[in-house]
What does this fold into?
Amino acid sequence: MAKLNVKDLELKGKKVIIRCDFNVPLDDDLNITDDMRIQGALPTLKYVLAQGAAKMILMSHFGRPEGKVVENMRLTPVAKRLKELLGEDVLMLKDCIGDDVKAAIAKSSARVIVLENLRFHKEETKNDPAFAKQLASLADVYVNDAFGTAHRAHASTEGITKYLKSAAGFLLEKEVSYLGKAVENPDKPFVVILGGAKVSDKILLIENLLKKADSILIGGGMAYTFLKAQGKNVGNSLLEADKIGIAKDLLAKAKKVGVNIVLSSDFMVVDNFDNKDSLKLVTDIEDGWEGLDIGPATIAKFKAVLARAKTVVWNGPVGVFEIDEYAKGTKEIAEYLATLKGVTTIVGGGDSAAAVSKFGVDDKMTHISTGGGASLEYLEGKVLPGIAALTDK
Ligand code: AMP
It folds into this structure.
């Protein structure tokens, strides 16, 4: 990356402020149910401590409190878990800016300090310069390790870089190196698997990948708009009627540039989402039926293309994988990816990451992105403001 890395910074005796993504899932009793995001930050945090930083000040958003203090969106559970994982005292503060925060940091005996949820202040998402300056005033250098919010120009991801030398953490760097290689210089054949609910979310992604990919496999809810564009029956399946024209254009463009688009061609359908007993396999979806998963012929067809791949990017489940009866396609694709040798397998964040984890093959993937929206925008070829704002090498 052409940006400073945490390794390029002089950290000894310094106050280091780090933007992390600690937006972890909690249960009703405020227990963390999955600490993947905290674990993901540990390499950077441990490195900064090992370099002898005087203070390590951690900041994150949590949920969407929309500029107000919301009691069950405090970062206290995160501070508690960090204390266990780092084996160091952690001071949890009641706010993220102001004189009290400054005074507490100055007299803290703990080196690790967690600021309260940034989004308790509406200025965070507004990228307010005065707020960003107040955050910056707490430290000597800034590190961004929150890939999941790098696509947002917020005070803690973009504004703050105007006041401090700014470097990428290890997690951010890792994301950029895997996703960057896939969009810039993938080992070929490069195969993309797309699924999920909506075509509209993935139009820019497909347009950008048409320049890079050899094959694009399309399953899930978004396939039906493409199938309709080819004149096929889709019954009651998910359909974005206003996107049929765009789907047609994308298919034509793919043909022109020689990208092999493979659409699902057999389907597991039901007559009602909740009527699992009606589940059956069809190649033509009649009125009154709804496709919720890909069928065995599509699974075989997708696998045959994947068997030749050297790079695979997967974004979006190929069926309603949350429900076991409709999960077979997504499960088989996930399990097949896990068997591929010498292939770079990259899973876009969000639902596809949840799917590989549900089917127990997460440790078999080369890289699982921690940022859903951010990885999508990166793959669309967009410049992410949180990365662009870091100090050049
Ligand atoms: P997205 O956020 O666009 O990646 O969509 C993910 C969601 O798409 C998941 O919750 C899946 O259950 C859903 N999904 C995948 N395939 C289908 C389908 N055939 N019909 C309805 N929903 C689907």
